[in-house]
């Protein structure tokens, strides 16, 4: 399967307008944003766990990165409430689920295969002091990519000119960018060389962003 697999084009997906699609596990549904592959895929997805649902134990051969958007995600490593950022690098394993239900934004098979740095962070706790109405937390940085979380006051601008591509998820509020209005759940991917200028709407915005990573995009090595 290929979905939004042309990394040379600008892509906007208003995820909250998409239908939920069932996963192989009962009670776990998905909204796919981009994908290369079948059930084993380089993928970016919104995943919803119904109360008491879970996946069977599995190993993330290509790594897993996710944000908890609402509810509480759980596995044998602990409870992960909304606002948590998690990196499970290649070779890590778990049995994910949720007693009360949750929604996560998750990226699979997008790691350096030698990365072994597993961690979790509460995104809001990492925020630096705001500058011109924008407070930003650096969640992760390596030779391939930078991952940040930003809170924007109403009318504030977030700009980036990273040559390696830019990807943004609107967690709350809204921004305008490139003629598009991006509300809660909207996902934007800009190709290599395309700059970002996002202006927050009247309620401000909370944004997750990844930059520099698109030169490394490729199908899973299976």
TrEMBL record:
<dbReference type="InterPro" id="IPR011051">
    <property type="entry name" value="RmlC_Cupin_sf"/>
</dbReference>
<feature type="domain" description="ChrR-like cupin">
    <location>
        <begin position="9"/>
        <end position="111"/>
    </location>
</feature>
<dbReference type="InterPro" id="IPR014710">
    <property type="entry name" value="RmlC-like_jellyroll"/>
</dbReference>
<protein>
    <recommendedName>
        <fullName>ChrR-like cupin domain-containing protein</fullName>
    </recommendedName>
</protein>
<dbReference type="InterPro" id="IPR025979">
    <property type="entry name" value="ChrR-like_cupin_dom"/>
</dbReference>
<dbReference type="Pfam" id="PF12973">
    <property type="entry name" value="Cupin_7"/>
</dbReference>
